[in-house]
Amino acid sequence: MGIHVPCLAWVPRGYAKRSPDKVELSTEELQVLIHGASTRNESLGRTEREDEEPMEDMAGASGGNGDNELAEYDLDHYDDDGPVQMDSLAGLAVYSSNSDDPYITLKDTDIDDREDFEIKDTDNLLLASRVHGNECSLEVYVYNEDGDCLYVHRDIPLSSHPLCLETLTFDPTSDSTGCMVAVGTLDPVVDIWDLDMVGGLEPNVSLGTKKKKKKEGKKRMTQEEGNASNEDKSDGEGHTDAVLDLAWNPLVRTVLASASADHSVLLWDLKQGRQAGKLTQHTDKVQTLSWHPFEAQTLLSGSYDRQVMVYDCRSPTESHRLWRFSGEIEHVIWNHFSPFYCLASTDDGFVYCMDVRADKPVFTLRAHDKAVTGLELSSQVRGCLVTASSDRCVKVWDILEQRPSLVQSRDMKMGAIYCGACNPDSPFVMAFGGQKGGVRVLDLMNNPSVRDAFGSRERLVMKTPADSVVQNNRTDDPSTR
Known about the structure:
The protein has helices at about 25-50, 55-60, 65-70, 110-115, 225-235, 450-455, 465-475; strands at about 5, 10, 20, 125-130, 135-145, 150-160, 160-170, 175-185, 190-195, 195-200, 205, 245-250, 255-260, 265-270, 275-280, 285-290, 300-305, 305-310, 320-325, 330-335, 340-345, 350-355, 365, 370-375, 385-390, 395-400, 405-410, 415-420, 430-435, 440-445. By secondary structure, it is of the alpha+beta class. The chain has a single domain (about 5-25, about 115-210, about 240-480), classed as Methylamine Dehydrogenase, Chain H (7 Propeller), CATH 2.130.10. Strands 1, 2, 4, 5 and 6 form a 5-stranded antiparallel beta sheet that branches. Strand 25 and strand 26 (about 395-400) form a beta hairpin.
């Protein structure tokens, strides 16, 4: 079974610490880890030793003179204090520093490692989930556009299959600015990890509770008991099924929204670490979410029930609009250059553009032959829409005049594409993950057709209050200088 990448997320430049902190494990924690490793190794060692021949027999098989050949090295006294007999070691020497050893020509490997560990002001972090069989992790890449460089900085072990990622700059553990990532998995829990900390074994914060496994042989519930149990679950805090998407509100930094297979959207108060609201207008799994870029109370959602909804979260049951389409909704996004417009993609290959003031779509685009799994607008250039699909293709569209035209189509040679994300600092740099091939970063401007269509368009940088807070705090932080 190969490695696949279900979800991706970028971290803007300047959000992460230049030199991330490292977790220092206590003596007790180290002993637990060592004990667990030694137990596994001991068990493995016993199995291996059963197949080994006795040392004496091996020496005899080589001619019976093994002891005589080793005697000249006096290995019985190898660890004794005292001068080393260089003659007996045939000229072998041990140097206190690699810099003194004439045979080691790479003298600055430690310096190179330190430079790779540091995150520069021109670096983005790219977060990519990694699934290989039952092993799941979150890989943290460093991407530098100027040097065309991408490498894995570290990875974070995950206990469950990841389904969605969302970066945020609010640290719930300190009520201050931080560089964090929220992870949604098959478990009904949202885990939040600190990206400024290296070596953590558990998330800083978990929102919700995991489902308890049912014990075999448990007595069957009566119908009344089952209904009562379901009511308790629906009225309790947290999701009861997998978390399919996450959306952080950049205008109200303490609010995170989560969409779930339990048909609900939850609003979380990160400062309190608890549920603050619940939206239940959808009748099937809620697959995708997006906050309005300029209206803190406005949330967009899409579901397996083939509906897209836009809510005023202050009174969601009374103030919402919906559209129904031909397929299950894969992604929804706001047009950050035209805030009355939003887009949705479906599992039957269509992309729809809606005006929130109207009932009918502005345009309908048959973009792919299969599900449109990636839907991204350029972060800085108007009209540049990028779609990705399980049909293995990435396409670039010009939608500036609300009449979509195809600019480029490319087979990424990575099987079905599961996700795509646009670099917030580089309007034509896209990352993709899929069925095989790991993470791929693509600069769209390397294609002549894309350059002709968008190369001369003005670049607009959309800033939110959260961006200003992060930049100010990071500038004042000595570790970022």
